[in-house]
Amino acid sequence: MENKAKIVMDNVRKVYTGHDGKETLALDGVNLTIEENEFICVVGPSGCGKTTLLNIIAGLETATSGEIRLDGEPIIGPGNDRGVVFQQYALFPWLTVRQNIEFGMAYLEKEEIRDGKTRVRRYTRQEKKETAEKYMKMVDLADFANAYPKELSGGMKQRVAIARGYAIAPQVMLMDEPFGALDAQTRAQLQEDLLKTWQQEKRTCFFITHDVEEAVLLSTRCVIMSARPGRVKEIISIDLPYPRNQATKLLPEFNVYKNQIWEKVYQEYLEFRK
Ligand SMILES: Nc1ncnc2c1ncn2[C@@H]1O[C@H](COP(=O)(O)OP(=O)(O)OP(=O)(O)O)[C@@H](O)[C@H]1O
Ligand SMILES: [Mg+2]
Prior knowledge:
Blueprint: E1 5-17, E2 23-35, E3 39-43, H1 50-58, E4 65-70, E5 73-74, E6 82-85, H2 97-103, E7 109-114, E8 117-122, H3 125-138, H4 154-167, E9 172-176, H5 184-201, E10 204-208, H6 212-218, E11 221-225, E12 232-237, H7 252-273
Parallel strand pairs: 3-10, 3-11, 6-9, 9-10
Antiparallel strand pairs: 1-2, 1-4, 4-5, 7-8, 11-12
The structure holds adenosine-5'-triphosphate and magnesium ion (MG).
Adenosine-5'-triphosphate (ATP) binds at residues 16, 18, 24, 26, 46-52, 87, 228.
């Protein structure tokens, strides 16, 4: 039912016009409904339009035709209800780790009941500080709170971007290969943190990854996109038990899902190379 769904993508089409006037059909009629509290992972060959789709949900780009609705309302621009972790960490080089995370919260508002009335107010400095600290700890960067991005490794920068996304506590998390550049141990740790956070808070997640194993571990449903122009090729429900952690990968069903999805993505890749 549409009014219960969190995000509805309705025949989303995107045509880019390049600098030479050449047109690229990036998305061709994407239809997908995401229910509240779902964890959707999106996989598909490089260039199939995953980032484009995420940017349209984020309100950073517009669809050429079709629309995306969030809680029934068409998306017309960015908003605090959606937190984004970009494919390439977009940090401000002149701000420290702590300031980068707090910056995201600058316009955050909070509802508060005072004298029986609901009021909306901005986060206080103290609230921003505490929230930043909580998520810096989560991504293991508390000791680097006052460092600048240029003093951090690639993986550390990505962890700052992740903390900044979490800190605004959005209803929807949009994550574009957030763990792609991390070492295997940090990646495993952050996957578990993300699973734990999702199980506690059940925010709707839209998570792009190239790593099929990661998609199976994290998602409630895995969306396989076709090669360009991107469409939803198939959706696979991942019925693995919770709580999930690295040990979940040892379950026989885990491998069944992994092989099934891998094969379909590989088929699309071969199709694209033809
Ligand atoms: N600003 C742009 N101008 C012109 N073409 C673009 C633009 N952004 C993306 N495209 C094209 O749209 C298609 C989809 O790109 P997109 O970045 O969404 O793919 P992707 O699935 O995220 O790929 P990857 O897995 O490599 O990140 C590509 O063919 C790309 O060249
Ligand atoms: Mg991309």
